[in-house]
Every structure is written in C-alpha cells, then in structure tokens.
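User: structure tokens for this one?
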Amino acid sequence: MEAVVLTDKDLMEKLGMTREEIEQLKRDADAYDRGEWPEAKSVTVRYGRPPLFEDDELVSVTFKIGRSQLKRVDEAVKEQGCSRSEFLRCAVEDALRLLESEESEGAGDGA
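Assistant:
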C-alpha cells in the first residue's frame, strides 16, 4: 500500500486545519516517532458500532402485532429515518412517561 502524503496546503484546504494545528500535529508526530507519545494522547480503539445506551444493557423482547399495525410502524420508520427497534424503544419510552405523568397527576388529586 502506497503512503499518502499531505502538504500543509492540503491540510489547510482539504481538512480545514489552521497553521497552529498543523505545527502541533508535526510536534506530536515527531514525539511519536521518538517513542515519546504522551499517555494522555493515546486512545482505545473500539471496533464495531458504538453502543446505543452506555448505562443500560439492551435485551431482546419478542411480541406479536397485526400486519396492518406493522405496516404503519414500517411507514413511520421510513418517514422518521430510523430502525424499527429505535422507533419501538421511543414508543415504549413515550408510553411510560405518559403513564408516570398520569400517575403523578392522580397522586396530586388526593385520589
């Protein structure tokens, strides 16, 4: 594989870097070449899609709905530009918030 070399002009025009950013990049590259790469500048590379929710493990749920309802879900998904799973997670979250809101309003009525 052939190495790609970008000039300072390329970095500024194609990547929008400033002169200061380019100089810092050169200093960092020199330090890396000398084996002096600062620990704080290293990153952990994670392969694959990032997790959807950092704090909560996703679990599979299987349920049945009618074909016509699934058709409506698929139409909404296409319109919203999201996945079925994302759409249904949002629908569940909205329903739970509505229930919580109704419960808290009911508690305030002295019922």
